[in-house]
Amino acid sequence: MQHDVLAHFAAEEEVMFPAFEAASGMSCGPTAVMRMEHAEARELLDDLAAATQVQDTDGVRGHAEALLILLQQHNMKEENILYPAAISAAGPIRGGAHGADRVEAGSQMSRLLDVQGLPPCESPSTVFSRLPTRAALRRERLRC
């Protein structure tokens, strides 16, 4: 789960965000917020892993809840702010305006904001359904 989330973040940060910033001219807009939230999520994932390692039930619960809330809010921002802005920024390239007639079909510029190839991040509910339950943590603790 952690690997998939981090791969999704990396793809956005290395491909989509730079392309969006180049097309829109905005480097301190939605992508800055997304990068900040990615950093927060990475910290929470590390905290969650550490709490799981030492079987800290309260820590696991707290970090999991915080991560769930952060990812839900993050996904809402992506869906309602970032993706519409990316589509809007790509419009002049794909819609025939602002020199799109000089962009060859299939060129790097024409694919600049195509996010369809990004690896999907699983829904937060799917991710959190895989976390150890309180009962499983108790059973594990009793084995020691």
Explain the overall architecture.
This protein is mainly α. It has one domain (2-143). It contains 5 helices and no strands. The protein is elongated, with a radius of gyration of 19 Å. The two termini are 26 Å apart.
Key descriptive features of the protein:
144 residues, 5 helices, mainly alpha
- Radius of gyration over C-alpha positions, nearest whole angstrom: 19 Å
Overall residue-averaged pLDDT value: 77
Number of helices: 5
| Strand percentage | under 5%
Main sheet summary = none
Helix-strand makeup class? mainly alpha
In one word, what is the shape? elongated
Return residue spans where pLDDT drops below 50 for at least 5 consecutive residues: 95-103, 108-113
Say how many strands there are: 0
| Helix-strand sequence | HHHHH
What's the structural blueprint in terms of helices and strands?
Elements: H1 2-24, H2 30-53, H3 57-94, H4 124-129, H5 134-143
Helix pairs in contact: 1-2, 2-3
Short description:
With 144 residues, this protein is mostly helical.
